[in-house]
Structures
1.
Amino acid sequence: MQHEQPTGPLSTKLDLRRLIMRLVAVVVAMFFFGFALVPLYDLFCDVTGLNGKTNSTAFIPATELVDTSRNVTVQFVATNNEGMPWEFRPEIFKLSVHPGEEIETTFFARNPQRMTMVAQAIPSVSPGRAAAYFHKTECFCFNQQVLEAGGTVDMPLRFIVDRDLPASVNTITLSYTLFDVTADQSEQVLSAASVSMASSVNTATL
Amino acid sequence: MGDHGPAKGFGRWLYTTNHKDIGTMYLWFSFAMFLMGGVFALVIRAELFQPGLQLVEPEFFNQMTTMHGLVMVFGAVMPAFVGLANWLIPMMIGAPDMALPRMNNWSFWILPFAFAMLTSTLFMEGGGPNFGWTFYAPLSTTYAPPSVTYFIFAVHIMGASSIMGSINIIATILNMRAPGMTLMKMPLFVWTWLITAYLLIAVMPVLAGCVTMMLMDIHFGTSFFSAAGGGDPILFQHVFWFFGHPEVYIMILPAFGIVSAIIPTFARKPLFGYASMVYATASIAFLSFIVWAHHMFTVGMPIAGELFFMYATMLIAVPTGVKVFNWVTTMFRGSMTFETPMLFAIAFVILFSIGGFSGLMLAIAPADFQYHDTYFVVAHFHYVLVPGAIFSIMAAVYYWLPKWCGNMYDERLGKAHFWLSFIGLNVTFFPMHFVGLAGMPRRIPDYALQFADFNQIASMGAFLFGFSQVFFLFIVIKTIRGGAQATDEVWDNPEGLEWTIASPAPYHTFTTPPAIK
């Protein structure tokens, strides 16, 4: 009797090779399941509106009916992520809007550094269950923002509060966190951006 | 080739496919890691002996907390259980060896390389991992030291080792049982390991995926966990704890099996409620997959999520309670004696229950906001891991060592080791409950003055516990080198096939399958 031989008189009904194939398949499947958690997580947040995630592309309104009988307060919060030196604030901190009405406001940003920088704003809506009813038709957060040294910009935001917003929600807070993504850009993107803005910034200072 | 002995020299260990040799290597390796992780812990406790910064820089302190956790979880506890599985499962089910002996060799021998890589980071510029053993992004991505890539590959290798070990264990248990050894006749250690192995193959790949995402975020410009690029740092915590929560059961289920073997022997009664033990283990394993977010109550989950994870977590107390009830009932009116393995097993039941109760306190979502990231959490998981996993491993070593090496350990020394460990561990970890409830945060090298007394007590206990383990090393070596000859049964009428073979266990056992009654 060879002790290295796994199959033989000791083996029960299960075929060893088939069992191992199955186990390896489980391992491979679970590895990809780990990655599948990423879209599943986003999907879960989208469906439930958890996490305060808002739409990341422009919303096209289906109707222009405005519910003038109701007022909803929308508050704006602007935060810089750690290490982000830009000046960043909403032009107006609080608005009273009617559901269905398209509202435009702006956020102000200034780059105080001596170099061109790229920023990305990430939105979040509170309470989370209001996120699905807060539609942005235009937002500076859809794109990255490039500012040359000392440059300023008024960034537009247009949104509609859905007429189906639950009656229990009277105040919606829209918060933006501004991230410095300059390091993630290639030098070409930065210099192209600088040139397109007719900037005199020397790319060597990047 | 039925009864040749082991080869000579280092080649024996390098090329061996013998389950006993590999089990021995796993156990020695895990003991070495246990001492190394212990040294890291003592650096932490020495720094926390008094308030203020005296011994180490905060940056190095962070590396110590991280490495202590990683080495103890992946280097000490998990390999020790795999070592016990290698030694015991074939002998318990009447098999001549593991089902895949060559892979067995491989899954052990990649481990030393993984840990060499991991510890080498401590000597690199920028230092080793400093982001906690849970390596939350962006601490472990955007703000990580450059050595994080070594950490990632070390985790990959440890994961590969665990996965191969688990496949081997499942294949052995399902295919190699002696005729007549039905599933419901298997010893509970085999049952708990079968379930643990399934947990491992389900979650270790998720961990591998998680660190792979980190690797891609760091080096290949993806943004899985970076909010600036559209990813989400909270996602990291979900992916990590989807692995992490089953992982804590991976570290405790085999312990349940060990204790279920030891208590009946020294109570001289059969285990109470064998079938309910099997079902309870399976229920705990299932529940472990749906409770992960109780580690994240404070991230801003909606109330429905908090409630779901709170109730699901509390549900785990039910099968765990069944187990504790069964162990106590097994001892009830038994003819008990208190040899060293039994002392460790009883301490396991009592102290693990204390850890379970503090776990229930943490499971209460609204209360967790007070306890989160304090020393109360540290006290909780050390109460389940030290007198849980570690005590069960020590109990197993005392219980089966005479079978492995043929000599009885010195009972007086064993008991002394038990009491030193028992006192040391309680002095170390019990005061942490108090400072935690009073608000001392974990993973911080300094603390407010009012925590000084309890921290001094804890540090003294830690050094007592730590040096007791050097004593343990002495006892084990002394037993291997000599001592009273153990009988084949070793104990008074113990149950299990491993006691039917000679002591020390011959190099090859059950080359012809035993008859199962």
2.
Amino acid sequence: MHELGIALEIINIVREESSKRNLNRLQEIGIRLGSLSGVDPEALSFSFEAATLDTLLASAKLIIEQIPVRGKCRSCGKELQVDDFVFMCPHCDSVDIDITQGQELDLAYLVEK
Amino acid sequence: MIEERITVERKVLSENDRLAAEIRRRLTERGIVSLNLVSSPGSGKTSLLEKTLGALNSKLKIALIAGDVQTENDADRLLQAGGKIVRPIITGGACHLDARMVTKALEQIDLEEVEILFIENVGNLVCPSSYDLGEDMKVVTMSTTEGDDKPLKYPAMFRRSSALIINKTDLLGHSDFDLERAKENARSINPDLELFETSCRTGEGLETWYEWLIRLVRDRKARDAE
């Protein structure tokens, strides 16, 4: 359960960006979270709520966009989606795949009221 | 009410990644091979390192960083096994090591005296996968007393690792663990995994692991000499 630590990192970055940009009524915090990031979205939401309780960020909602795993086959060069962590090319059955998305753990945007 | 959407685009773990990049630069500069050892609790990482020290202490300059949630027991075991440079990290409850902790531990190590660095992470197959420690590669250990579907349950960790050690092979046959199925599961997540089958009790398979480590150090030196 490292999601609390991740939530605290998010809060740090949000504070930094808020003071830099003069934001004080944040409504949304947009997170992009890959399925291979090793971070559980529900645990992250829960941790964020717990960590912002009774703070200025308490009314800000964490909006998590989950990013599926996609890759590119090194054998046939085609792009593919990796479902259920089966790393096999559906076009040529190769398992030689470069991951192109799905490892994200990004703060994408903020919404100010 | 007017809403304003502000694009930020920052990596949440950018501070960790920055420190990890700095560690990687320092280790690479000195030609040090570094391995981040990850596994569930009790899979035998410390035993494996004890054996490794016994076999390679006279051949390689080894440094170890031992991460533990609460005690220095693992670090003590590694010292007793002959470890010359052993630094404990007590995470105080945290379920993983991060680059800041490793940076601090490295401050107390004379890197000129090191050819290979083992970082024994906290026993946990989830959280350590998110934190780059600046290592060359992750080595994941699973043991035959666990489920042979571990790779399928923790795909992020097995995908990000470069080698897999299946430990406690002396206990094969005493549980439902199917070695072939375990390897198949691991390869389905990551076909590039270097595979080792070891028993720290009988010593079976350890020689291959030692040879691989020696080769890593030798290849690094050869590359740096070019």
